């Protein structure tokens, strides 16, 4: 047999590819065996999303792990943050079968060590890939002397109880909330988490369907929240929530149907967490709004800026003991949740903040949304380094400008900033611009784009 070529499916932080073209159940079984060998685990937990291929891949992984001697707890259908809960609460390494918001033909594996500690290229994923490639050509390793057991366990109620123990919703006023699950795992978790709360739940697309018949389960793309916005306006709801396919990200819409920026949500949740833990550290990546470090500082906290990417956020949270971290992509990380990301916990914080004051969500978040942003603008560029150098040369000599190369290139002044950074996987440059007003933002955006897109 020729060794499997995993170069296209083993990414920086996870495994992801088309099934069965790029990977299948026999390979999933080898991944399970390799995961146990690299983590040296005697027991693991495995869960999966609603994609058609997920139960088979997850079951194959579990068999491979058990063949290497690990006892496997299978929690079945779950969100990614529910898998992190199981890993943290049970103290076990874990594997989640999902391709998040990718189309139906994709699937993947997000792996973690005990306590939801991430497994990425530098923390075990490269070794796992090497073993799977080796075994795919030489044959699977010999089975362990004592094969592990396979046990089923439902942790959904425990997951919901843990989240609700972290946010006090006991005194909130009655709220009307539209939730768009996008046929993803929010349809599985939201009914249990919201049960018994004074919230009138208006569900959209809660049927679990990994073919995504209504819209792509990626709420960061504006076209995918159109239905949610319309339903919020139609029903007079107080808030709209949209989850991605594996329900680890949550996007918020206000009572007018207007999107609330993830930076504003980060600042709001940071203020709430700092009220409980005064003087603590809060992590934010370098393309979140300036309002985030401002709010953190105003509430007595210490803002720490990181590169884009969950591995950097989690590393800094562990290093600094931060209570919370947020990203522009609607990933929210909590120390009380093993430093893992959970959109559901962020949503509960927003509901608690909204429900303990009389005004609408738009008024509540206005204090945390102080600037005008461009959103992320992607440009196909052959010479990424050359275009970044042209931007540096054009802007760096101007009065009041500072230059920073923590992640790509950041140019900033007292009234505006932009960051441009290359994609790791495609010939793209990603531009984010923020300014004190719309006119300034547009001026800087257009100037930067003209330099990026110059032939």
Automatic annotation (TrEMBL):
Record protein name field: Phosphomannomutase/phosphoglucomutase
Cross-referenced CDD domains: PMM_PGM (cd03089)
Cofactor: Mg(2+)
Domain Alpha-D-phosphohexomutase C-terminal: 376-448
Alpha-D-phosphohexomutase alpha/beta/alpha domain span: 8-136, 158-257, 265-371
Gene3D superfamilies tied to this protein: Alpha-D-Glucose-1,6-Bisphosphate, subunit A, domain 3, Alpha-D-phosphohexomutase, C-terminal domain
PANTHER family per the UniProt record, alphabetical: PHOSPHOMANNOMUTASE
One Pfam family cited in the UniProt record for this chain: PGM_PMM_III
Keyword set, alphabetical order: Isomerase, Magnesium, Metal-binding, Phosphoprotein
InterPro entries linked: A-D-PHexomutase_a/b/a-I (IPR005844), A-D-PHexomutase_a/b/a-I/II/III (IPR016055), A-D-PHexomutase_a/b/a-II (IPR005845), A-D-PHexomutase_a/b/a-III (IPR005846), A-D-PHexomutase_C (IPR005843), A-D-PHexomutase_C_sf (IPR036900), Alpha-D-phosphohexomutase_SF (IPR005841)
Similarity comment text for this entry: Belongs to the phosphohexose mutase family.
């Amino acid at each position: 047999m020729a060794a499997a070529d995993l170069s296209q499916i083993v990414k920086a932080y996870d495994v992801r590819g088309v099934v069965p073209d790029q990977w299948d159940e026999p390979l999933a079984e080898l991944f399970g065996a390799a995961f146990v060998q690299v983590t040296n685990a005697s027991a693991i937990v495995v869960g999966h999303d609603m994609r058609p291929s997920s139960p088979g891949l997850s079951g194959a992984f579990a068999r491979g792990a058990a063949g290497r001697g690990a006892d496997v707890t299978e929690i079945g259908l779950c969100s990614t943050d529910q898998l992190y809960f199981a890993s943290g609460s049970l103290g076990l390494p874990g594997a989640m079968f999902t391709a998040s918001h990718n189309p139906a033909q994709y699937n993947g594996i997000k792996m973690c060590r005990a306590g939801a500690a991430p497994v990425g290229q530098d923390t075990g994923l490269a070794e796992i890939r090497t073993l799977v490639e080796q075994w795919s050509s030489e044959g699977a390793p010999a089975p362990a002397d004592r094969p592990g057991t396979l046990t089923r366990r439902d942790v959904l109620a425990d997951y919901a109880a843990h989240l609700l123990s972290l946010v006090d919703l006991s005194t909130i006023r009655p709220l009307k909330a539209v939730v768009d699950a996008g046929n993803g795992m929010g349809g599985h978790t939201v009914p249990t988490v919201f049960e018994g709360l004074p919230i009138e739940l208006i569900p959209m697309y809660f049927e679990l369907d990994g073919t995504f018949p209504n819209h792509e389960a990626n709420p960061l793309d504006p076209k995918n929240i159109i239905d949610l916005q319309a339903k919020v306006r139609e029903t007079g709801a107080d808030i709209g929530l949209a989850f991605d396919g594996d329900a680890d990200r949550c996007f918020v819409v206000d009572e007018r149907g207007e999107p609330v920026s993830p930076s504003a949500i980060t600042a709001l949740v940071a203020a709430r967490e700092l009220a409980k833990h005064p003087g603590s550290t809060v992590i934010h990546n370098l393309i979140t709004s300036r309002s985030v470090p401002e709010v953190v500082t105003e509430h007595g906290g210490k803002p720490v800026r990181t590169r884009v990417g969950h591995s950097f956020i989690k590393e800094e949270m562990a290093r600094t003991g931060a209570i919370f971290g947020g990203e522009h992509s609607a990933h929210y990380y909590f120390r009380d949740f093993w430093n893992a990301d959970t959109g559901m916990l962020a949503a509960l914080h927003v509901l608690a903040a909204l429900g303990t004051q009389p005004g609408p969500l738009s008024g509540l978040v206005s204090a945390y949304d102080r600037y005008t942003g461009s959103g992320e603008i992607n440009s196909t560029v052959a010479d990424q380094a050359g275009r970044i150098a042209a931007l540096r040369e054009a802007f760096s000599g101007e009065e009041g400008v500072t230059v920073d190369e923590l992640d790509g290139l950041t140019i900033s002044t007292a009234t505006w900033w932009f960051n441009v950074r290359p994609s790791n996987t495609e010939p793209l440059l990603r531009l984010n611009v923020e300014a004190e007003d719309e006119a300034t933002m547009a001026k800087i955006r257009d100037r930067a784009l003209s330099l990026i897109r110059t032939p």
